[in-house]
Amino acid sequence: MAGQGGSSAGGRGVVISDNWPGYSLDLFTYPQHYYGDLEYVLIPHGIIVDRTERLAKDIMQDIGDNDIVVLCVLKGGYKFCADLVEHIKNLSRNSERFISMKVDFVRLKSYHNDQSMQDMQIIGGDDLSKLTGKNVLIVEPQGCSQSGWESQSFPQAPNSCIQLSTQQCPWGTAHHRAVADDIVGTGRTMKVLLNNIEKYKPKMIKVASLLVKRTSRPDGYRPDYYGFEIPDLFVVGYALDYNEHFRDLNHICVINDHGKTKYRV
Ligand code: HPA
Ligand code: MG
């Protein structure tokens, strides 16, 4: 994105710098029910889609000789996944390589109990054993970030915080509650998913993330492909939510205080 502190292909994705002021909301259209709730547009929808097309090309170049099982991480990953799959299909149609793709969905839930133990569960999706011998592409809205989400001024904190333990999650008991599942908040979260999948011996696993937040990364995890490196901001739109709102917004935006208050639970 020109004029906003640098962009680069490949390596770090499109880098959106900390001092990028965003685009004025007046320059775009967005649902009327969000008027007054947003601060600015961080990434317009068109740029997301164009960048996703390039990721599709990179993915095709790397693994396009093989059939792919796409594992979409819900809910926040659904738009990115839909666009990515569409682009891969188009590229494959227009090339010599015709790859077959299967798409499946998983949801990661983290539960937090009174003792501050947190656990993650993978729910939904086919039996993971179907991934044996397959080329698996995990598609998630956001890659690695810092594990200490509480330290940031997230409107949802500590709900946005996922910290993992390997303990069994006593699913659904009264003092367990769901916490963030949209943005896979930590590299550790993704590592748990990867470890689970690896048990079934897929031929290959790659991870594609739309966003990577610029925070310290204690576990050094980075997705194989990602669209944008963004400042440490709470973002909504393009399937990313604030308390289940804003998923229907096309652009990736930053909410304002009015929006945070209006949709606070
Ligand atoms: N947006 C939406 N959900 C989230 C975010 C975010 O920036 N961070 C953690 N959960
Ligand atoms: Mg969410």
TrEMBL record:
* Residue stretches making up the Phosphoribosyltransferase domain: 47-140, 179-242
Q: Name one Pfam family in it.
A: Pribosyltran
Question: What cellular-component terms does GO give this entry?
Answer: cytosol
Q: Could you identify this protein by its name?
A: Phosphoribosyl transferase domain containing 1
Protein species of origin: Catharus ustulatus (Russet-backed thrush)
